[in-house]
Amino acid sequence: MTLRKSLLGAALVLLACASSGVLAQEHDHDRGHGGPGRAGPGRPGPGPGAHFDGRFGHNHYYPSRGYVYGTLPVGAVSIGFGGGNYFFHGGVWYRPYSGRYIVVAPPIGIYLPVLPPDYATVWVGGVPYYYADDVYYNVAPGRGYVVVAPPPGVDTTQTMAPPAPPPVAADPIFYPRNNQSAAQTEADRRDCNTWATSQPNAMADAKVFQRATEACMDGRGYTVR
């Protein structure tokens, strides 16, 4: 009887360990291929790994800081800062992390060409700030927008809905004329995004940024549509 109990206990322990390993694998798979709510990197819905930002009536879901993805979302913009690279897409900031990409808070002072697609306008002392996912942005003439520290007294400020944005052109399609692989196409696109940010007015005008990216991709052997 004692031997039976011991064997049964050992079997239960092994079963629990195996189950834990499967769960851990599934959780890591979610992190690398689709993220919280399986809605894709940068665009999570309700679910594990996502949090709801309701501040200032923003009402939007974001992946939590520290969440890891295997790939970046298509269209992520590479922005150099402090000797390294950050990636920005849909209001979410990423950094390279052991061959993958981790969701992070952006550094104060980093510039970006366009605002997140969803944001709340917050007025402090008559000056508009743009808020999304616990990050505040301000206009940076000639450079687009810049990440700033939370303005003093922000908790007592007024908010307003952002104005209706003008129609946004669909993301361009890059067709490889020289049979470039999908991996090479993605690498070229990121390089061209980085190069585009260095062009005059590209950080202040999204159309200039997009034209510069398309010109770069054309020069690397892609047909742009």
From TrEMBL:
Keywords: Signal. Residues 26-49 are annotated as: Disordered. The keyword Signal applies. Residues 1-24 form the signal peptide. It comes from the Bacteria. This is DUF6515 family protein. It comes from Scleromatobacter humisilvae.
